[in-house]
Write a structure and sequence with these properties.
The structure is a homohexamer of 69-residue chains.
Chain A (H helix, E strand, L loop, with lengths): L1 E2 L3 E12 L3 E10 L2 E7 H7 L6 E6 L5 E4 L1
Antiparallel strand pairs in A: 2-3
Chain lengths: 69, 69, 69, 69, 69, 69
C-alpha cells in the first residue's frame, strides 16, 4: 500500500472524544521521522528558510488522517 | 502568541527545494509530543479507534505550515 | 460561473445530519467524470503513478464543498 | 487497512504531469458510490440542503489523495 | 447559486504568475465583510477567544478558491 | 515571528459558538490588504484570470486559523 502523502507518522491513540458529528482523537507520536511542507516559494523566501533553521510547524487537526492496519 | 491549531511541533529544516511557484521544505521533528486529529464520528466508529490503538497518521505536505521565530 | 477547482461532480443529496456546529451531508454522485489530484512530484514518483494504473482516491469529507444552483 | 476518510473512490489514472515540485494527476472514477461532505450547520441551513436535492460538488485537486495497492 | 462556504469575499485580481503545474494569483479584497473560522472548541478555549478580541487570521493560499461570474 | 502563509488579515472577533468538539468563530476583518490563491495553472487558464478581473473568493471556514498575540 502506497500513499500520496509526504507525512506518515506512527502513533498511539491516547484519547477519543466523540461529538455529534465530529470527533477529536489524540495520539502520541512514536516514530516521528522526517516531515515535509509544501508552501509558496514566495513564503519560503519571506521566511528565509534554509537547512539548519529551527522552526515550529503548525497543522490544523482537521488535516490529520488516521489509518489503522 | 497563541495559535488556533492543535498540532505544534518543533523541527529543524533539512532541505529546501524551490520550484517556480511552490516549494518543498523538509525537516526533522525534534519534539514530537502529542498530536490531534479531527474526523467524523462516523469514521472514528468505522475505524473502531480507542486509546492504546496503534495507528498511522497521514498528512499531505500542503497542510503543514512552518513558522519561524 | 467558473470555479478555480478541478473537481466538479453532479450529485443528489441522500441524507443530512445537523450537529451543533458542523453537519454531515451524504450524496450519491450522478455524474462522476474525470477527476484530478495535485501532489508532490516526489509522491508521484514514489507511487510510480502512470496512465492505466488502478488507484484508490481518498478525500476527507471536510474538503468537499456543495454548491446549489 | 482502514482510513479516517469518508470518501473512497476507485479510479484509473489517465494522465500524469510532473512539475518541478508539484504534479497533476488525472483519473477516471470507475466506482463513484456515495460521498460525504462536512460543512457548518449554518451553511447547510443557508443552502437549505435536504435529501433529494441536486447539487454540484467542488473539491480542490490539492485535497485529493491517491493510494496505490 | 449558493455555496457551502462561510467566507465569500469580492476582490480584484492584481497579478497572475503561472508555473508549470501550479499558479499564484494575487488580488485586492474590495469587500471584506464578516468572516468565519471553524476550529476545535479546545483551541477556542486555549486561545480564550471572545467577542471584541483583536486577532490575526492566517489562511494558506492553497485554500483560497477564486470564482468568476 | 514569520509564518508560511500568504494570507494574514487583522480582524475583531464578533461571536463565538462552542459546540461539543468544534467551534465557530466569526470576526470582522479590519485590515484586509492583498490576498493570494494557489490553484492549478489549468484552472487559471480555464477561468481566464488576468489582472483587473473582478472575482469572488471562497474559503471554507475550516481553513481559517486565528492567532492571538
Amino acid at each position: 500500500m502506497k500513499y500520496g502523502a509526504r507525512n506518515k507518522l506512527r502513533a498511539k491513540v491516547t484519547s477519543v472524544k466523540k461529538g455529534d458529528v465530529m470527533a477529536l482523537v489524540k495520539f502520541q507520536v512514536t516514530e516521528p521521522g522526517e516531515m515535509a511542507s509544501v508552501l509558496t516559494t514566495e513564503s519560503v523566501e519571506e521566511l528565509g528558510l534554509k537547512p539548519g533553521d529551527e522552526i515550529q510547524v503548525f497543522i490544523k487537526a482537521i488535516h490529520v488522517m488516521p489509518v489503522k492496519e
